[in-house]
Amino acid sequence: MTDLHAGWYLLAFTSAITEELTPVTVGDRRLMIVRSEGADGPAFQVADSTCPHRGANLAIGGSVRGNCVVCPFHGRLIRVGTHPTRPSVQAYDTVHIGELLFVRFGDDELGDNGFPDAIRRLTTGREIRPAVDRAVDVPVEFVVENAFDIEHFPTVHGVPSLQGMVTVRAADGTLSIGGDFMTMADPWYDLRYRKAAADYLGGSGSRAAHRSAFRAVAFSPTVVATSFGSGTGDPIILTGALPTPDGTQVRVAVIGDAGQPLDYIVDGSRLAISQDCVVWANLDPDATWDLGPEDVNVVAFRDFVAHFPLAPARRRQGARV
Could you tell me which residue ranges the Rieske domain spans (predicted)? Predict the structure, then answer.
């Protein structure tokens, strides 16, 4: 059985959820997204999809009736959310903001890290644009690790230099890294035009003189918010990595204000993930690592992953005969 952590996952972009019931698998946990219409627009619940009677997948062929799902195998009504006497499936905490649907498998405050309040602060009054939704063949932790792997930025993405990159574990349980990107212009320009700008990146004696403050905050091993800029109000690049039976689903959204170059950042985010995918597709995740002092930020992230609380086992109902 795949271990899932107790923190938040970016489960889906809601524009892709058009049916009453949508099956989804996180690790080896079969789930369903239940979509309903309310006065303020669509609402979503996330729950286990395995019928407690005989194991049918409620999300495939089932139908919604009130707060229950009609099982496609025997027609029984299965309550969404645990119930003391009626057949039911466990429902999970969710956060739905615009296009973003998050789910958490922890109990109470386990693995929460203040994420619901933080993501609302980051998105209130701002535009949310999905940028990336693609499957990658790499273990899930490698995706968010990229924000803490400072050596890969110059090599893979062509960032001329970095300064003062330091990782800190906060009292709220999040892990952050901060420092400066030194580029010729803004970092998204350097990223998009890397192949055509060898001279621009220093080949003709030019020096990287544009300082962009870089900050990334990992709320869990699979959700990280990254920003480049000089203060509050900078655009946010939100990256989520979802474990699937076939690998990892990477989702990236850009969060920003009217008047900011969001199309530009969306394009840069897509290019960045494409560049990462070339490495990920040819990576041996089981290779022995030979780490040194320059890997201190990666080590900090991997320690964060290793000690992040795990989700409780899925509630199972015993057989009744």
Answer: 8-103
**DSSP state letter for 193:** T
Q: What is the pLDDT of residues 67-105, one digit of tens each?
A: 999 999 999 999 999 899 999 999 999 999 999 999 999
DSSP 312: P
Residue 311 DSSP symbol:
P
85 phi/psi in degrees, rounded to 5: -125, -25
3-state secondary structure of 78: strand
Look up residue 40 and give its two tokens.
């303020």
- Provide the H-helix boundaries in 240-321: 262-280, 296-306
Residue 179 CA to its chain's centroid (Å): 22
Contact 214, 199 (CB under 8 A): no
Tokens at 236, concatenated: 């946010």
Identify the helix (H) or strand (E) that includes residue 115.
helix 115-123
What distance in Å separates the CA atoms of residue 159 and residue 212, rounded to the nearest whole number?
11
Whether pTM > 0.85 for this model: the answer is: yes
The CATH topology of domain 135-306 is: Naphthalene 1,2-dioxygenase Alpha Subunit; Chain A, domain 1 (3.90.380)
Give the residue from 320, 235, 248 showing the smallest Cα distance to 277: 248
> Could you state, in order of their start, the residue ranges of all structural domains in the chain?
8-112, 135-306
CATH topology of domain 8-112: Rieske Iron-sulfur Protein (2.102.10)
Q: What is the pLDDT of residue 207?
A: 56
In 3D space, the residue among 80, 96, 116, 81 whose CA is nearest the CA of residue 41 turns out to be: 96
Percent composition of the chain: helix, strand, coil (DSSP 3-state, to 5)? 20, 40, 40
Q: Are residues 5 and 311 in contact, defined by beta-carbon separation less than 8 angstroms? A: yes
